[in-house]
Structures are given as C-alpha cells and as structure tokens.
Fold these 4 entries.
Entry 1:
Amino acid sequence: MITAGGKLVRKIVVILSVLFFILLVACNDENSVPEENTSDDVEQENKDSEEDTKNEEDEDEKDLDEEVPESEENSEVVEPKYKIDENASVVPVEDGVNENVVLLTIDDAPDKYSLEMAKKLKELEAGAIFFVNGHFIDTEEEQETLKQIHEMGFVIGNHTYNHPLLSDLEGKDDQQREEIVGLNNVIEEIIGERPAFFRAPNGVNTDYSRQLALEEEMVLMNWTYGYDYFKPYMDAEKLTTAMVTGEGPEVDVPYSLLKPGANLLMHDREWTNDALEEIVTGLREQGYEIVDPHLIQTISEKESVE
Ligand SMILES: [Zn+2]
C-alpha cells in the first residue's frame, strides 16, 4: 500500500528527473548547432570524456543520454556519405545522397593567404581540405594559424614536409618517411589529430609513399582539375571563369572538367584568394553543392564498416 506521503515523494522525484533531462537536452542542443563544427564537438567531447574522471554525475548523464532520440545522438557522429574514387572524384557511398557536389582543396597551406581564405569559406559556409606543408608550420605563429583553420572546422591534409617531388626520393625510404610520417607527427602535435588525406606534391607518388599513406591510414587524393598554377590563370578574373566553367582553353582544356564529384585543386595564392568567393558562388549557381569534407570516408571509417 502506498501512502499519500509516499506518492508526493515519488511525484517530486519524477518532476526533478524531468527537469534535469530537459536541462541536459537544452545543453546538448547548444553544442550541436553549427554543422561545420560537428567534428570539433565530437573531438571536444572525446577530449572531455578522456579527461573526466568517472564520477557519478557522468554515469547519470550517460543513462539519460540513452533516452535521447536516435537522430539527436547521431548528430554528433558524422556518417560518411561520400568516398574518393580511383579518379580522385567524390562519389556517394549510398543512394539518395546528392551527387552534384564538388570538393574544394587548398594546397601549399598555410602560407600567406590560407587564414584569409578559411575565413572567407567559413563566411560562405563552404567546407574545404587544406593540404599542409611542414615548412609552413615551423614557427609558433604559423602553428597558431593552422590551429585556427582547423578550429574553424576545416579538414587538414598532409602535403609532405618540404614539398619534394617524391619520385626524386625513390629508394630514399627514410627521407620519404620523414616527409610524410614526420609531418603527421607535427600536425598531430598542433591540432590533436593525424591527417586522414594525403596529396603528393604535383600528384606524384612512389610505391613507398603509397605504402606510407596506407600505413598512416590516409586516403590518397589527387584532383580532377585546377588552373591557378598555370601562368594564364594567375589572375583572379580569369581564374574564376576557368574554375566555374571547368574550362582552361589557354592550357589546352577547351572542354569542361566540371562534373559531379569534381575535386578542385587550388593553392594558397593571392589571385586564388581574390577569386575564392566568386568561385564558390559561381559553382553554386551551376547547381553544385560544396561538399563537407567531413562526410568523405576515411580509411579508418572504411575499416570499421567492412
Ligand atoms: Zn603543392
């Protein structure tokens, strides 16, 4: 038999639990708003859970988290929706995913313009991968720049330490290892994670660099088109036209390379920085979505699926 007093106590307990739950949900909502920050949130959460000692409050929080609807839980884990195919194109991994996407990549970062480019892209809500060279992150100030770009939600890729032509290092395994694995160590120290994508200088890999990339769980990534490193296109207006149409008639590309999944190569250069906003809006006007690189399958994600 339950007494009136017992009922009241149970009522209070229920009300308090509901209030606590609402508070938790509200806090979670605040953390999960900007899409681009999702991975940062996950990272932050991972850090938090590593650092936290397992006290009772944490246990309570976990119990309550389990009652949160599935969709909200999943918003913290980014499910891969695309992969890089053998032509460096971005292709959906499942039906129902928009295939009309292009990927923006910025190589030789973070030199003079990367931070400004990152700010512009952030403003435009356009994701990108910044492929980084070690010699651009060897001062404290440069390391701070890299950290900032990463914290803005951009993906950081490996572009070797000194930007050598890897074919020149054929047979010099130690040097290739230093260029690739050494850079990952430096990047991890600065941003707290190892790159999941590798782009060789000039797109030239060796058998050993391919092996190292795999060992480091990095997806090899060349590109499908880019014009900012050809003399005729070292000009913001001409570059914009070339990037938005996919055509570079002055370097013998009189047909369009813009197609679903195009992987666009750009660099940390003045004219590219000047053209960036119009390139993004121009591509969107053609019906292309700028893909969020966090949605591209990495090797560790691939392994966990298979
Ligand atoms: Zn480069």
Entry 2:
Amino acid sequence: MGIKEDADLFRIRSQWKMDKMLCQCGKAISDVVYPCPTEGTIIGQEDYEVLCRTFVEQTNSFFDAVQQSQRAEWLDEHFGNEYPQKTKNGDVVPDIFNLHMAPRSLCIADCKNCGRLWIQTSPGKNEYRSFLPDNTGYSRVLALKGNTAADE
Ligand SMILES: [Zn+2]
C-alpha cells in the first residue's frame, strides 16, 4: 500500500469509493465530495464480528508496539514503509479500522433521482448491482442520521 501525503485517512477510505456511474434512470451518480450523503458502506454481521475482533486485536498490538519502542516497525509491517511515521498514535487507530473494514465491506450508492440503491458485488471490484425500491424516489437512505462530529 502506497501512502505518501497527509490525506492518509482519506486515501485509505477512498479504497471503497465508487467515483462515478450512470444510473439506469439516466442520471449520473458521483461522489466528488467526501463525506457524500448518497454514498456509504455496508457490512454483514459475520464480517462485522470479525472486523470488531480484528480491530481490537490490532489496536492492542499497535499500542503494545508503541510501549515496546517497536512503533516504526509495526507501522511498516501493517501499512508499508511509505506510511508517515509522524502520524499521531490516535490517528493511527482509524487507519487500523479502515484497513480491516475495506476488505470486509461493500460500497453502496443512493440515486437522488430514482432512489435506486447500487451495491458493489464484492470488495475492491468496480462492479455494482442495482436495487429499485417499490416506492421510488430519493429517501436519503445514506444521508447523515446522527449528530455531526462537531455536535458531539
Ligand atoms: Zn437513478
């Protein structure tokens, strides 16, 4: 994995971005902004269980490495030698999460025009399957539900 710039989090998250596609209804779905209210990620319960366990194990492993002065080696081993060593410990945690989330989850996009949901067929694959709701129209399935981080 090649990570060079300060936008590391974005680059790791962007592995599951869909970029742009044409919906069956004729409108383009694109995600030029991040976070995007018409784009999301879905994960099944089985993968979620594995993700949670792996995330906790890897986070503990990272902080053990920090305590044992093996931080640089740990980062090289898990993120590659281009990962910025200056990244704060707390900022490494979401990178660990995203590293293990990406191969266990699928992109999902919501068409603002027809309400059709587009779900990636498998992690990392640029192929989507569409699902048209019985009641068509945009219903903000993926739009923000909780408070923004600034509100919490
Ligand atoms: Zn559509």
Entry 3:
Amino acid sequence: MEELQVLIRRLLWMFTAMFTLIITFFVGVFTYEPSTETVWIPESEPPQTEPWQPKNVLYELAKMTPQVRRGYFLIAETPKYMGPNAEEVTQRFTGNTLACANCHLKAGSQAGAASWVGVVDRYPQFGGRANKLGTIQDRINGCMQRSMNGKALDPDSDTMKAIVAYMDWLGEGLPDTRKKEFKGYPKIQIPEVAVNLEKGKRIYTKECVPCHMQDGQGVLLDDASKGYQYPPLWGNNSFNEGAGMHRVLTAAQFIKSNMPFGEATWDNPKLTDEEAYHVAGYINSFERPSKEGTENDYPDKKSKPVSTPYGPWADDFSAEQHKYGPFPPIMEYYREQYNITKTK
Ligand code: HEC
Ligand code: HEC
C-alpha cells in the first residue's frame, strides 16, 4: 500500500513538472516578439554587427583606387576638370560651372537625392526621353547635355570610365532591402492647384535667399575653379531648359527632400509638398540656357512627363499648364484617352 502511494506521488510530480514545462514553452512561443532591430543575415554572408551604411566618401578618399578617386574629383569638383575654363582644353565638356554633386548630394551617396548608390546595376534601362534602352553612360551624358548644359563624353573615354568606376564603388555591398531608398526622389502629393509664383517668391525669400541669394546666382567657393558653395538656380550657369530639374514636379521632389540644405532630408523634410511645388515653379520661372532639339525628346509623345515645359505634347493643354500646372487634369486626360497612368 505504502509503495503504491509513493508511486502515485512520484507520478503526480512527473505530470506537474511536464505540465509546467509545456506551459512555459507555449507562453514563450506566443509572447515572443522579434526585436525590430534584428537584421536577417543570409547564411552565405559573413556575420555583420552593424547594418550596411553608404560610404563616407571623404573619409575613404585616401583608400580609393586612382581611377575611383579620379571619378570622385570629376563629379565633386566638376568645373575644375571638365568646366568651360578647365585647365586642359580638350576636357572642357560642361557648359556651366555646376558640379554633378550640387544635385547628387554628398557626392552621390545621399538617399533621396537621386543617389548613385547601386545606380550602375539599374542600367541598361528603358528611357522614355530617347525611347530606347539606355546604358549608364547614356544616362550620364543625359545630365552632361542638360543639367550641365554641355557636351556628351565619349563612352569609352577614361573620363567616363572613371565616373562609372566611382559610381560602382559607391554601391559596393548595398543589400537588396536598401535598394529602393537610394533610387530617385521620394514622391510628393501633386497639388490640385497651379503654381502660384507670388507664394513661390515668398517661400524663396524666406527659405532660400540666405544661400542662393536674391538674384538666384548663388555664391562661389573661395577657390572658384572648384565651383560653388551655393550653386545658382537660374541664369547662364544653371541647368538648361531640357534638364529634369526644369520640370516643376521633379524640382519640387528634390527640394522637398533636400532643401533648405542642412535642414531637410528625405525622412525629415522642412517644406510641405505644396510649398516645395510653388518654390520649384518660382526658380523655374527665370531665364536659363536653352537646349537645341528638345522637340525630338520623347519620340513617343505620350510618354512625356506632364510637367515637361516644352512641346510638342500628345494633348491640347497649354504650354503654360505644362509648365505650372495644375497637373491632375492632364494626368486624368492620359488615363481616359490612352489608358496611361502617369506619376510625373
Ligand atoms: C543653407 C544653405 C541653403 C539653403 C537655405 C538652400 N539651399 Fe539649395 N543648395 C545649397 C547647397 C550647398 C547646394 C549644393 C549641395 C552640394 O553641392 O552639396 C544646393 C543645391 C540646390 C539645388 C540643386 C543645384 C542647382 O543649382 O540647381 C536646388 C534646385 C536648390 N538648392 C534649391 C533650393 C531651394 C528652392 C531652397 C529654398 C527652399 C534652397 N535651395 C535652400 C544650399 C542651400
Ligand atoms: C541640376 C541638377 C543636376 C546636375 C548638376 C546633375 N544631375 Fe544627374 N540627375 C538630375 C536629375 C533631376 C535626375 C533624375 C532623377 C530622377 O528623376 O529620379 C538625374 C539623374 C542622374 C542619373 C540617373 C540616376 C538613376 O537613379 O537612374 C545619373 C547616373 C546622373 N544623374 C549622373 C549625373 C552626372 C555624372 C552629373 C555630372 C556630370 C550629373 N548627373 C549632374 C539632376 C542633376
């Protein structure tokens, strides 16, 4: 009898212990929350302690290969090496004294500023402006001939190769999950109204004049051969009429995420979408270099971005409306007429 009691007691103990274990297990499973900081690391990659960060370009300058370093100077101090007054006469390719990095901030490493991190892998890519598959060299020459108001580089030249090598270097190690962040500009909500130049001027005076000056001509660096401390926004030394920045919607996206410089970033902007839009219209209301042959851009006119300020277009909206909006009615027209959904 005694023995039976002992046996029962032991069995009870065993069940209680097992029961507790099982409960503990399930409580653990159901209350487990993975930390949001956790980074999933594929097995094939070496373990990482820090999440991937874009390169700190200036810090790495000394470690670059000579070709990559040359690429860096070409894009950061463009006027000195490729500008209209460049020492080497055969290298005078750009028509203005901007640097590529005046728009592609932090030497092309800044997210939300049409960065070049991972850009080489995005090409060849279909481009509506030429209506064909374009290479990274074609795209660079697009900015050479428009943003820089200059001439195309020979795709096989050492200059072009150095620029591409630099861009390639910037994208080293970029994880797939971060690719989107480094592409283009964050979109803005497109206002229903047309640009109001009076509002644009007020915003410009308050937010932009301290650096870009009232006349929009900016301020040169102490060593003027290297270009600007604060680049010009219109006039002879600015981007030409065929440039992407001359489209109000593109300029508004850039401004929203990047200006005023040092204050606004893509994840912490200062201006509202509508403020960025009015001021983008304002800076694009002034004279700038013209571009020949823009009528041939977008051989398929239906693919032309709605805020392209020069014709011809595949619609009857006025030149004024293509420059200053309102854009939603134009977008609606393409949806109804051609079944095309336009985002820009
Ligand atoms: C604190 C100074 C500062 C303020 C304020 C500022 N910017 Fe800029 N802006 C810069 C600098 C510096 C660059 C070039 C960045 C570089 O080279 O790294 C630049 C570049 C630009 C560019 C592209 C390059 C070009 O010349 O076209 C545009 C467009 C622009 N700014 C518009 C604006 C607008 C619009 C405002 C007001 C909403 C503004 N900025 C306010 C300093 C400023
Ligand atoms: C006035 C401003 C400006 C300047 C200066 C400029 N760019 Fe650009 N660049 C742009 C804009 C705007 C885009 C299109 C961004 C978008 O809509 O995603 C662009 C796009 C590009 C792209 C394609 C990016 C991508 O994600 O596909 C490359 C490459 C490029 N630029 C290279 C250059 C080089 C090299 C220079 C100097 C020779 C230069 N740019 C000078 C404004 C500029």
Entry 4:
Amino acid sequence: MSPDRVRAVSLSSDRLDVALWGDESAPVIIAHVHGNEQVALHAAAQVVGRRPVRLVGLAPQPRRRQRIRVAGRLFDFDPNRMWTLAGRAATLACLGGDAQPTEREQAAALADLADYAERAWHLLGAGQRPIVAAHNNADGLLPVDALLGEPATLASCRIPHLPPDDFLYVCHPPAYERLTALPFAHAVLRDDTRAPDDGSLSVRCAHEGVPYINVECHPARGDRNRDLLLAAVDALLPR
Ligand SMILES: [Zn+2]
C-alpha cells in the first residue's frame, strides 16, 4: 500500500505530502482527497495494478480535513472544497485559541491554500486527463436517493435491491451511457451547468471540461469499492 513516490508541496511555512502511485502519463487519474476514507484509498491502490491509472493521494493526515500552518497559525480545510475561490473562502478555518485571525493572516492562509490547490491540480493532470474521485460513504451520509430529486440531476439509474451508499456520480454523458448500458450500480448523471459552486473537485473539472466520475462506496465493502472504481476507470478509458 505504500506509494511509489511522495512529492512534497512546500507552502509559505508548511508542506503537504502528496502520495503517488502508478505511471505519471497514465490516461486516467484517480484522486483520493479524504484521509478518513482509507478503504477507498486501498481499493484505488488495487486498481493501479489492473488498469493504466495514476493514483494521487491528497490526504497526508488520516482525517477528513487537512491542516496547514501559515505564519504561526494553524488552519484546516476540506480538500474537496478547495478547488475554487468560493470553496476555499467557505472551507478554510483557523484552529486553536480564541483570537480570530487578522485579515492579513486569513488572506495569507487563503493564498497558501490557492497555491496548494493549483499544484495539486497539476499533479491531477492539469485538466488534460479524466478524473475518478475515490470516496467512502458511511451509512446515510449521502444516499443516492438524496441526489435523485436535485435540480442538477439530469438522469439516474436506481437499482432497487442494492444499498443506497454505493453509487457512481457521473459528470460526463458518454461515460454515463457506458455505465448504464448494462446496469450494475446506481448511477447519477449531473448537469454541470446547474451544479452549485461548492469548491469541490467536480466543479473544477466542470469549469475546465474534464470528464469526471465520483465513486461513493460504503467502507464495509472494499471489494465492491474496487470494482466500482474499475468500472469508472473503464468508462473513461478510450474505447
Ligand atoms: Zn469523501
């Protein structure tokens, strides 16, 4: 499970390690962003030996929110909310102590987070390759049913006997067609033009026209998690 390489991203007064598996020039990228979702990372690492993928691990600390120190103060952020200006402003929080950060400290931390997100984006292929995001979805956190009535949902394929935590959230119509030709998992197709800017990786991909699939799977089902990731990668590989 240890990565093939670790790249340190240096910021103004801290550094974050990015773990890398697989060939740098692989045609599909798998992104892992939440450090508390280790089953998804294990499942993604199993895909590396089976498909031409590059796995990029952006969660050096085993927690959902990652931490950075900026000018002596500790901040944290959700790495799946750092990909746009609005997302960064909403997710960045100063930790520890009662004293609020000054405007200058807050601005410095936002600049560091923007710098980190930009360099992470380059490690994710800089918009030149499709991306699969590997997530775990615990009981009831985000059931597929919650997405079915959303304005941004363009189409969906719901399979009655399967658990609602495991699904493919697809932002690329051709991949959705491939994944639902023989239905084997819940799949939802998102209309990128109607998705709110929450700073998630899906929004950045939509802005830059990058095909994107989010794989959600309950952490108790590691093999299923791997199989869903394999299917998502296959749907994005050239035919
Ligand atoms: Zn996640």
